[in-house]
Amino acid sequence: MPDHRKRILLLSAYRADSHAAWADWLTSTFDAFDWQLLELPGRHFRWRIRGNPISWLDALATTEVDAVIATSMVDLATLRGLQPHLAALPTLYYVHENQFAYPLGPQQVDSVDPQMVQIYAALAADRIAFNSAFNRDSFLEGMATLLGRMPDAVPPGIRDRLTQRSAILPVPIQPTAVAGGTRDPGLILWNHRWEYDKAPEVFAEAMLTLAGSGVDFRLALLGPRPANAPEPLQKLREALGNRIIADGKLPRSEYDALLGRAGIVVSTARHEFQGLAVLEASAAGATPLVPDALAYREQYPDACRYPQGDVDTLTQRLQAWLQQGAPPAPDVRAWTPGRLEPDWKGMLDDLVMGERKGSRVNRG
After folding, report:
1. What DSSP string runs through 157-209?
2. Which pLDDT score, from 0 to 100, does residue 358 have?
3. Whole-structure pTM value
4. Element containing residue 34 per DSSP (H, E)
5. Which of 28, 63, 94, 277 has its CA 20 to 30 Å from the CA of residue 304?
């Protein structure tokens, strides 16, 4: 029998962990659609964000689909220009992270080029979705600031145009199978990348200060890290090796077991557009302690937030929690598949049934 399902082309130009989890969830959950997935490895950022239309030049030449979803690493405007048969299709631009609020690394060159790619892509798309209100607002504010630097000839109302076609659609956190073991209220979990944008040096300083106060605690140091351990991780290993019960990027079953065991999960991030790692740990029962900034303000109560980068307050709050007990883990069911699938299904149905280029739909 012929397959009458609507065909959706999903373009993900940077298959990093969160992008991969989202794409895999989307294509496996909504099997009422016929998915065609094209991805590029999550490396060489500068080349990826500008080079993906060339990388897919031949692969897309004969593609026949009903709609397109492109992630925020896709140079959508250039791609639509090079692939005229895709240019008229209804298109959703999904913004995992925007280049206006992403902190610049120590070896990176400050350039507006990635930001302009995302502005052009948003303007070229029929619908835009963000994984958090913080992501949307920082994108729109950053765009307005950048366009304000143009000396002249800027059309009015660009921010309003993009706002009208924008929605908030988070990536669902995957349910964690928590075994019936005993939770350790003194186990502090770090489950982030050991890179500059997660500020591991702030976390390490807080842990060393906390240990100096004589408080009893243990550490689970998870998350990806470069081959050469960064200085904050080395310091923790050397000074607090006897407190570290896990150290490395673990298989999923072992990772889930630690989520279900940890009493506290800590973030010191300088950038977080949704924060899947902390959401997953919170869903498993760990109490989060996160910066009072970024997407965290949408997710966690005041008691679970501290001033961003404030090592003293972070240490004091942890000491109080370890000695007197942490607050209960907040309710994060709003970010689970059961809550988010209807919103995603509505967006996908609207997309494939929508008008050709020029349709402007706002779902939130």
Report:
1. THHHHHHHTEEE-PPPPPPP---S---EEEEEEE-S-SSGGG-HHHHHHHHHH
2. 42
3. 0.93
4. strand 34-41
5. 94
